[in-house]
Amino acid sequence: MIRKRYQSNSESATIDIAQQFAAGLKPGNLVLLFGDLGAGKTLFARGVVSYFNKTVSATSPTFSLVNVYPTIPPIYHLDLYRIQADAELIDLGFEEYLESDGIVLVEWGEKCEHLLSMDYIRISFTMVDQESREIVIEEIEHATTGR
């Protein structure tokens, strides 16, 4: 497991970290984002999306559940905050996104992590204080990867 730890003291620093991270992403990558409300998950997603397309601004898909961004590769941004059961993930088409040709970003990754049998990247956001965040990026490998 590869683990990287970052300290962000501003929104622009979080965007910079996200863009550096995005440089290593490729089609088929799954990225799970963990952290409390306001910890920086959507801001980080915005930084990833802007790396691939500067003219697109990522927004939280809290109510739509999924935003698809016109990037190359496409980015599928899911927000599972309102998901209460695994059956809702199936109805959402979660497995189809995992099998897509794009990059999948999932806010509230704890709602789906237990279902995964593939490699993924886990990013945890911890609020240190009002302005500061600790961001930990881990590559999680499964012995039986379907990709």
Structural account:
The chain has 147 residues and is of the alpha/beta class. The protein has a single domain (3-140), classed as Rossmann fold (3-Layer(aba) Sandwich), CATH 3.40.50. It has helices spanning 11-22, 41-52, 86-92, 94-98; strands at residues 3-8, 30-34, 66-69, 75-79, 103-107, 120-127, 133-140. Strands 1-7-6-2-5-4-3 form a seven-stranded mixed sheet, with helices on one face. A hairpin with a 5-residue loop joins β3 (66-69) and β4. α1 (11-22) crosses α2. The chain is globular. The mean pLDDT is 93.
- Supply the helix-strand structural class: alpha/beta
Radius of gyration: 14 Å
Total helix count? 4
Helix proportion of residues, in percent? 10-25%
Distance between the termini: 18 Å
Q: Which CATH architecture is right?
A: 3-Layer(aba) Sandwich
CATH superfamily membership, which one? P-loop containing nucleotide triphosphate hydrolases
Strand content: 25-35%
CATH fold-level label: Rossmann fold
Number of strands: 7
The string of secondary-structure elements, in order, is: EHEHEEHHEEE
Shape: globular
Low-pLDDT stretches are none
Main sheet: strand order: 1-7-6-2-5-4-3
